[in-house]
Design goal:
The chain has two domains: about 350 residues, Alpha-Beta Barrel (TIM Barrel), CATH 3.20.20; about 60 residues, no CATH class. Helix 2 packs across helix 4. With about 425 residues, it is an alpha/beta fold. Strands 1-2-3-4-5-6-7-8 form an eight-stranded parallel beta sheet, with helices on both faces. Helices cover about 40% and strands about 10% of the residues. The radius of gyration is 21 Å and the shape is globular. The longest helix has 29 residues. It is built from 16 helices and eight strands. The two termini are about 20 Å apart. The site of zinc ion has 6 residues, from loops.
Length: about 425
């Protein structure tokens, strides 16, 4: 087998602590006020506190009382470790050091100014300018592939996106969205951005996993937040933290790509079925495990006819916990929803960043990549560097996956499929 000229990591980040909003830990715990980004940067004692909280036995101790906070601790640890890194270039070089020389790296920018967590030290445009500067560097020109973030709440978002994608000296390679920050992916304010992406075959990458970066505002103050705008189902949530799942749920992409659904919601609908979009993290490792372990999801539920598709999710798209009167009901795993969309639409991709921290998913991943189905051409390798990767695990994780899959399948996720996704 011929060795590919390079590999691609399709999901990584290089923004620095300067681009994180000051109140990032807001709502995660009652002592969030202590963990302001400014203080992590300036005070050694706060960094010491974060390192201490990250000790295994302490994590185990506090995980029950403070689950969301505990899950965010490895991330805070990464911020604490990189507190003095002021240049994205340093982050890039940090990731490069783990891979063979010519490895191409997709860097996803983040606009966290609308997540109700305050302002970052350096604003979004600064982040884009700085990364564009790196892209202009001849040493990095063919190495880094930046994605420009699109938040519908930012003024003139399509113009911002377009200017970056069309920059001759430092072209960005795609668009990043992150609905957990407080919007639905089918927000009509993104209409022109999607239209542009569709016309230019520009890849869009979204975040599709229940995580700890989400809108920190009190959504429950608004009654509309309790109802899904398209299904009109009342969401089974009360706390702001839970709404991340509602914005992030993969069914929202069916709403976006299915014209029959979208036309009832947008004033000027467009048919986005050919949009090239990657669902980052493939739903998350817990949803993969749910698919593998729960017998209730029959395979005949795949390839659901389009007409029934919406009906299916009107039924139950969130777990219903058991009550005294009923047994409860489990929703379809996000893994199966995404897999179904990959079957249905030509240009839906998914990446396995973060998901691959869980080795139990590897047999299923291998089976998918070996299948004759389109899905084997739609999975991308990524690691989510540096946001959640544990220090030193970057190389370990990639080698573990590569070793398990063998060279032929590894070449698919780290070369063939990303080439297609990134139009290389
Ligand atoms: Zn990510």
């Amino acid at each position: 087998m011929e060795k590919p000229p390079y590999y691609v990591n399709s999901h990584a980040h290089c923004f620095t602590i300067n681009h994180v909003p000051d109140n990032f830990t807001k709502t995660l715990t009652w002592f969030s006020w202590l963990l302001r980004i400014k203080w992590i940067k300036r005070k050694k004692i706060i960094r010491w506190l974060i390192v201490t909280l990250n000790k295994k036995w302490i994590l185990a101790l506090i995980s029950r009382a403070l689950p969301a906070f505990t899950r965010s601790l490895p991330r805070l640890m990464n911020f604490a470790e990189n507190f003095d890194v002021d240049a994205q270039k340093k982050m890039i070089q940090g990731l490069q050091a783990f891979y063979p020389d010519k490895t191409k790296l997709v860097f996803l920018t983040m606009d966290m100014e609308f997540m109700a967590a305050g302002k970052p030290l350096k604003n979004f445009h600064h982040q884009l300018d700085e990364l564009a500067e790196c892209k202009r560097d001849p040493a990095l020109k063919d190495i880094i592939y930046p994605f420009v973030f699109a938040d519908p709440r930012r003024d003139k978002i399509t113009e911002i996106v377009r200017a970056r994608l069309e920059d001759q000296q430092a072209p960005f390679a795609g668009i990043k969205i992150y609905p957990a920050l407080g919007y639905y992916p089918f927000d009509e304010r993104l209409r022109d951005t999607y239209q542009y992406a569709l016309d230019h075959n520009t890849p869009v990458l979204t975040h599709c996993i229940k995580g700890v970066v989400y809108y920190r505002g009190k959504k429950t103050d608004h009654t509309d937040y309790m109802v899904h705008p398209i299904t009109k189902k009342t969401l089974p949530f009360r706390r702001p933290v839970d709404f991340t799942a509602s914005f992030t749920h993969p069914y929202n992409y069916e709403c976006l790509l299915n014209y029959n659904i979208l036309k009832n919601y947008w004033k000027e609908p467009i048919d986005l079925k050919n949009l090239k979009i990657c669902l980052g993290h493939f739903g998350g490792e817990d949803e993969w495990l749910k698919y593998m372990q729960d017998a209730w999801l029959l395979d005949r539920d795949f390839n659901i006819p389009e007409a029934e598709c919406l009906e299916l999710f009107k039924n139950e798209w969130y777990d219903k916990p058991p009550t005294r009167k009923s047994k409860g009901l489990k929703a379809y795993s996000w893994f199966s929803v995404i897999r179904e969309m990959i079957r249905k639409y030509d240009n839906v991709y998914a990446d396995i960043s973060y998901t691959l921290c869980e080795p139990r998913i590897l047999p299923l991943l291998k089976a998918l990549l070996e299948s004759p189905d389109r899905i084997s051409k739609r999975i991308l390798f990524g690691t989510d560097y540096f946001v959640v990767s544990k220090a030193g695990a970057e190389r370990e994780m990639s080698l573990y996956v590569r070793g398990y899959l063998g060279d032929r399948l590894w070449n698919k996720i780290a070369y063939e499929n990303p080439n297609e996704f990134l139009n290389l």
